[in-house]
Each structure stands twice: as C-alpha cells, then as structure tokens.
Hints:
Radius of gyration: 16 Å
Amino acid sequence: MDPVRLKRQAISLKEQIESKIHVDDDPYCFYSRTMPLVEAAIRGEISASVNGRESRYISGNFNHDESEGTLPPQYDREFTRALAGFDVTVQGLSLEETEDIVINGEVYGRLEFEEEGDWPDRVKHP
Length: 126
C-alpha cells in the first residue's frame, strides 16, 4: 500500500465529502463509515491495505445506486472519482497490470510508489 498516494487520495475524498454532503443528510453514511478511515489515512495511521468488503467503509447502498445510475446529483463524477481513487489505494490495488514474480513459491508483483514531492509532476495516475 502506498502511504503517500493514500494521504493524497484521502485529502481529496475528505474535501469532496465535506463540500457535497451535509452531515445531517448523509444517506450513504460517509461521515460515520468512510470518514474515520479517511482521517486515519491523512494522519498516516494506516500501514497495511484494508479489505473493502470486510471493513465496509463504503455503503453497499451507495455501490448499488451507483451501478443503477440513481445517485443523487451531489455524488457527481468528481465525487465518485475521488472515492474510487481512495478505495483502490487503501486496498493496495494496482492501477496497472503487474508482472508476477515467483520467489521460492511466493508470488510477488513490482509496484511503483509515490514519494513526497512527486505530486503532480511525477505521478502516473492522479
């Protein structure tokens, strides 16, 4: 999991949540389910990938409504892109195909991590 990218993605998602969702009108529970993980990522407290299905930091209702195309207008492309960027990063998933490398029967993949100061000039996937 890339902690530098995670922090950047978390800040972006937090801005989207705070600017588009009112805490008292949060049908998908972003303040109670997602925001604690986002804030932990910003503080640098996440050191290993998180399983999205097990932790359920994104509401299943949100995923359903997104797939059906019935999200309210505040959950626009900018919001869903920030959410997807955070989701992929916190789960430690790659945005590119990785080559399997087998060492002593264990499968590994080579990934590129961001360094502090890389944003925005040296980042492949904003």
